[in-house]
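Example for tutorial group B:
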């Protein structure tokens, strides 16, 4: 199972970079060296990333059931709204 996840993750990045493995290696090394964990993408960047991820996941998993993902997002939104009504904040994890 773990091997399948790693392979899917690897394929995702390869597809995003359209098999340009030299550019992928360069950008991965930049991320490692620059420690980009504090990076906050703009809303436009998030949408572009989501489009790439959506396209790549559809390529890898042709019969992926998005209803489970949407159900989980709705569940988290309801939980967030409930916590907010009590004056507490719930970060999305």
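The residue assignment follows.
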């Amino acid at each position: 199972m773990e091997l399948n996840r790693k392979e899917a993750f690897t394929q995702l990045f390869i597809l995003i970079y359209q098999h340009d493995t030299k550019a992928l290696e360069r950008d991965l090394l930049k991320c490692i060296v620059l420690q980009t964990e504090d990076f906050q993408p703009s809303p436009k960047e998030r949408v572009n990333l989501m489009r790439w991820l959506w396209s790549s996941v559809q390529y890898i998993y042709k019969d992926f059931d998005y209803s489970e993902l949407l159900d989980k997002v709705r569940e988290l939104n309801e939980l967030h709204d409930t916590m907010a009504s009590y004056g507490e904040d719930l970060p999305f994890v």
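Helices lie at 2-16, 21-34, 43-60, 66-85. Compare this with the pattern of hydrophobic and polar residues in the output above.
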